[in-house]
Amino acid sequence: MQDSIEQYMQTVGQQARQASSILAGASTQTKNNALSAVYTALENSESSILAANQTDMTKGRNNQLDSALLDRLELTPTRFKDMLQGLKDVIALVDPIGEITDLAYRPTGIQIGKMRVPLGVVGMIYESRPNVTLEAASLALKSGNAIILRGGSEAMESNRAIAEAVQHGLKVAGLPESCVQVINTTDRAAVGQLITLSEFVDVIVPRGGKGLIERITNEATIPVIKHLDGNCHVYVEAQADLHKALPIALNAKTHRYGVCNAMETLLVDEKIAEDFLPRVAELYAEKQVELRGDAATRQILGSTVQTATEEDWYEEYLGPVLAVKVVSGIEEAIQHINKYGSHHTDAIITENFSLARQFLTRVDSSSVMVNASTRFADGFEYGLGAEIGISTDKIHARGPVGLEGLTSQKWIVLGDGQIRH
Amino acid sequence: MQDSIEQYMQTVGQQARQASSILAGASTQTKNNALSAVYTALENSESSILAANQTDMTKGRNNQLDSALLDRLELTPTRFKDMLQGLKDVIALVDPIGEITDLAYRPTGIQIGKMRVPLGVVGMIYESRPNVTLEAASLALKSGNAIILRGGSEAMESNRAIAEAVQHGLKVAGLPESCVQVINTTDRAAVGQLITLSEFVDVIVPRGGKGLIERITNEATIPVIKHLDGNCHVYVEAQADLHKALPIALNAKTHRYGVCNAMETLLVDEKIAEDFLPRVAELYAEKQVELRGDAATRQILGSTVQTATEEDWYEEYLGPVLAVKVVSGIEEAIQHINKYGSHHTDAIITENFSLARQFLTRVDSSSVMVNASTRFADGFEYGLGAEIGISTDKIHARGPVGLEGLTSQKWIVLGDGQIRH
Fold first, then answer.
1. What ipTM, to 2 d.p.?
2. Of the partner residues A24, A251, A416, the one whose CB lies closest to the CB of residue B420
3. Which of A109, B137, B200, B262 is the most buried (most CB within 10 A)?
4. Are residues B291 and B171 in the same domain?
5. Residue B52 confidence (pLDDT)
6. What confidence tens digit (pLDDT) does each residue in A222-237 have?
7. Range name among A268-277, B108-117, B224-233, B276-285 with the lowest pLDDT average
8. Which strands form A180-182's sheet, in the order they lie side by side?
9. 3-class DSSP state for residue B231?
């Protein structure tokens, strides 16, 4: 079995590599035609895709999957419509491939520039959401990359039905169907193979729980674009405008709980803590957010607030819980964030120019904000059109990863017969 | 022993991480002051550095190191002067850190942009050349990164003497000496530790033979910026201007043999092979370059030319040997390059606009050239000022890696109290 999976993955990899070299040379028109044909194919197969999803849902219920997972798995007609809208948005994006920048003469007379090119083959590993199948496939195609998709076993039928429509679209547009391949086995050995297929796969993008991503990062021999944690902070500085600080503190925590750009720790400057904390605590109480505070916070808010332990500062709650700490100033705030944070997204609320500038420079996170909610850290909000994931790595792509994160640049040199002396 | 090396490397890593957070906030002025102080310290210790190098040389001769390695190891007064000039060049480079680009409003009213930041800590692993110690340290400092240097054991004394001067300079400028650390053990276990110190090291840059780089790539759990091979091609297309093709073919092969951007295979279009091949063969004969040809080449040049085997197309000779193949046109040339090449640097010689455009687009290499010698693929020639290496990877940095390759970008968001709806 192990052997046959190895062979199967080799074949998938080889086909992806071949398809990628055709895709790399495909014109914007061809790629958009393919995506439009995918759109039509999906529209036409709505009922069969939703039926496939219901098969997954029934199996999931029988296997007693938890309700959060079942919710992520389900494709309703509304979600299907959103999925199609997302595809339309990708079609409308500017094609990054082939763009030549910085073309300039050197003293030798040669011209040097950079041309944007696809990475080649993307390996995408994700959990239950079937809409990721289409998102990832459409971003890969638009950026000229072949993609190998390995979704969660619980979404197998949904993913297969979506992929069928995608491949139909590719065929209509005259592109190889192996531009988008779905791994057809639930054997976990297939993941182990995929993340070490360095001959055929250029980058791995995992999306899912921390356990999945840690395993992939440790075992992969191919570069991985990933984020592990979203432990985001809002620091309400002493010169904050509380008319901004209060709504932002509320929004960053309660707009959605289960997302990586939600605030998990609130830092409050000691000079305003006595004024600010009771007011913000009232807002959180309305939303039934549990607070866990340091000693100073508990002194102000009362001992009904739980004591925050050292672990709380590291925690990504992904739920209605918030750690709160009173800090002596920007120095302590920055040090706390750089130490306990996950380098995802952190914000300062202040009217002080110099402190804002200092925070922007010294906080070592993929997104650093002044007077805005951490919830904005998102490919759509940043104008990337869509995102294949959010990276907390520093290498290659950082923060929301859109089309550009799926590309590289090569140097081009134009000469007139120059030789080197 | 293993334990104590692990502990030692942990300490080195921790110190580097601490130093990097200070360096990341250092102004351009501070960094340049440090580099200038390093310059002075090196000037003042010339005699002791050259003496340390002589100790290495004597030991090397006693250990019967081969002459090529001894040549790379030796620091002559001229090479020392060049080293200092390289440092001056780095001081003159524009500081990339802190640059904010693409700052633009989104419909929500927030402004989104990108700020260039250091990677953090660089782990540099290299072989015998002691000048790499200074090059790598100065590029790292200028780009705000701490660096851990692991040079070849044969250059231990030279590297230590150079590092001493560097650390003296750091001290004078008020920066932590642990911004630049030299591993003080020749135990290979230290390398194994360095490439897995993911908590403290952000990127590994190996420079050396293929064996070293392959080992590091396979074992590293940290991203590696590397190139394995430089199997470069020049394709002389049918519409080539032979007044350009002949000097370029000669220059790309014979300007220097042991370098990664030297041509290793010459591809000649069949329509001009009978005219071009005898003329270029004459030039190579003068330089005593051995040719290995396919059947068509041997038919034109005679059977004194050795037969090229399948292995020859993959070979990086790094010497006065050249594989020669007659191809039927651009399609065969591109397929040959993408199959056998190492994705380093490849050139087409042609006067035909459309074929040049096609070659630039379809050849999947870090540098693709028209009518110029492959020897130009170099950080200095490209205007980067200096390079820490050349990357044939597609992730993060590709081609010559200068200051920018040692940086990343974070997103910055400037708001006025915006929350997400």
1. 0.92
2. A251
3. B137
4. no
5. 97
6. 889 987 789 999 999 9
7. B224-233
8. A180-182, A146-150, A121-126, A203-207
9. coil
What pairing do the DSSP bridges indicate for beta strands A321-327 and A263-269?
A: parallel
Distance CA A325, CA B35 (A): 40
Would you say residue A254 lies in a domain? Answer: yes
Q: How far apart are CA B172 and CA A267, in angstroms?
A: 37
| Amino acid at site B114 | K
Q: Let me know whether B110 and B141 are in one domain.
A: yes
User: Residue A138 falls within a domain, yes or no?
Assistant: yes
Half-sphere exposure of A169 (CA within 13 A, CB side): 29
Q: How far A273 CA lies from chain B's nearest CA (Å)?
A: 19
| pLDDT score of B219 | 87
Residue A375: its chain B contacts at CB < 8 A?
Answer: 419-420
Token look-up 């110029």 returns B372
Same domain, A408 and A346: no
Residue A421 lies in a domain: no
Q: Which of A110, A115, A243 sits opposite B372 (nearest CB)?
A: A110
Angle at alpha carbon of residue B18, lines to B17 and B20, rounded to 5°: 65
Report yes or no on A388 lying in a domain. no
> Hey, are the CB atoms on B373 and A419 less than 8 Å from each other?
yes
Say how many domains are in chain B: 2
Most A-contacting residue of B114, B351, B394 (CB-CB within 10 A), to test interface: B394
Domain extent for A289: 232-381
Q: Which of A221, A338, A412 comes nearest B360 by C-beta?
A: A412
Question: Look-up: residue for tokens 């605590």?
Answer: A281
pTM of the model: 0.91
The answer to whether residues B346 and B274 belong to one domain is: yes
- The percentage of residues in chain B with a pLDDT greater than 90, rounded to a whole number, is 85
Residue with the bigger pLDDT between A267 and B25: it is: A267
To the nearest whole Å, the CA of B117 is away from the closest chain A CA by 8
C-beta atoms of B104 and A368 within 8 A:
no
* Shared-domain flag, residues B268 and B194: no
Q: Does residue B208 contact residue B126 with C-beta atoms inside 8 Å?
A: yes
- Tell whether the model's pLDDT for residue B228 goes beyond 80: no
User: Where residue A165 sits, what CATH number does that domain have?
Assistant: 3.40.605.10
Q: How far is A44 from chain B (nearest CA, A)?
A: 33
Nearest CA in chain B to A115: B361
pLDDT digits (tens, 9 = 90+) for A272-306: 999 999 999 999 999 999 999 999 999 999 988 99
The per-residue pLDDT for B1 is 52
Sequence-distant (6+) residues with CB within 8 A of B354 are none
Digit-coded pLDDT (tens) for B82-140? 999 999 999 999 999 999 999 999 999 999 999 999 999 999 999 888 999 999 999 99
